[in-house]
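Need the bound structure for zinc ion, inputs here:
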Amino acid sequence: MTYHSTHHPSRELLGKFAEGSLSAGMSVVISAHVELCPQCRETTSALEAEATLNWLQNPVSDTAGSEPDFSHMIDAITSEPQSITPEADRFAVNEIHMLEGSVSLPRVLAKLASDGLVWKKMAGGINQASVMLDNETQCEFLYMKPGSQVPVHKHRGNEITLVLDGSFSDEMGRYRESDFVLRNASHQHQPMSDEGCLCFAVQDSPLMFTKGLARLLNPFLQYRFRRATSAQA
Ligand SMILES: [Zn+2]
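Answer from helper R.:
Posting the output first, comments after.
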């Protein structure tokens, strides 16, 4: 693969990733990009060293009175491709088979896919397989068939799309393998794919997961939420 990403997570986001302060969903999509992108791998290593040093110098700075929670940091470290362990290789699934052939997955996504993916057909030639990682994000693999088009939409929060294979384009550009595309609530866009595209997408829309407020959301989002919930069962 000679293509180098032209769309990366911001340094600020990589910093939060290195600190282990992101939700599991966000950590996973950034970890997957970092595995595919030498440039962000280098940045993340430097930021991790910095974060570790800071932590060692001020170990109790903002956790006084409570047990420190290392779970996010451990997640981030175990999903970091540079700390490859033999255990990581025992996961049977490391690729997804699509119509046009199979696609190798970044390690952290291979772990998720190993739990089994249930693909569902959506409108416009899109197939979706939801993955539940935490209560703050909605994560899914998305497969756009060649010639497919997502209806015009806006987001309530941030939506990150990591391209795993093929390409898609929207009003703002064209995105290829390993590109990390961030759209926020102010963007209205209509992704389409001529050649087909496999992506991993993460939406951070906490409102969607707040009981009582869910009924205020539009029917499309409620529908997606129900599907995500049933996919978990
Ligand atoms: Zn990058």
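Comments: Residues 38-57 form the longest helix (20 residues). The pocket of zinc ion is lined by residues 5, 8, 33, 37, 39-40 (CB under 6 Å).
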